Please model this.
Amino acid sequence: MLFYVGKDVFRWIDQCMDTFRRSPELTGLGISEASFTHLLIKQTPEDVAEKLKTWGVIEYARIFARSVGIFNQFCEPPPQDLLQPDYLRSYYRYADYAYTCWRDAKKYPVLPQEQFPFTLYASGEYTKMLEEQWKETVD
Model:
């Protein structure tokens, strides 16, 4: 499951990076994927944290960090018989270390949270928002 959460996190990061690259005033700041990951994990906006908690996701920072670590280790989820039993018993430690290695591979600027606001939506929430927007444009 962490692999797929990581895949979603990186989709979001790719969207952030795409927006960043299109903004001439931001291109010289050295912003990288790790900048946005730091924003998500260490500077989570309070409304995002509360939404995650209402979904039952209490340790969201740890889950996001581990999902980044797992996603950076594998192109696809590996079959269970490919992994050593010790890895399976302690996958979370490997995921934590993989995240730290990825994060520390190069320096990155920490983004000011107030200048980079964001929110998260569940699939159903986002679909409902799109439907409402489409209704407004049709009406």
The two ends are 40 Å apart (CA to CA).
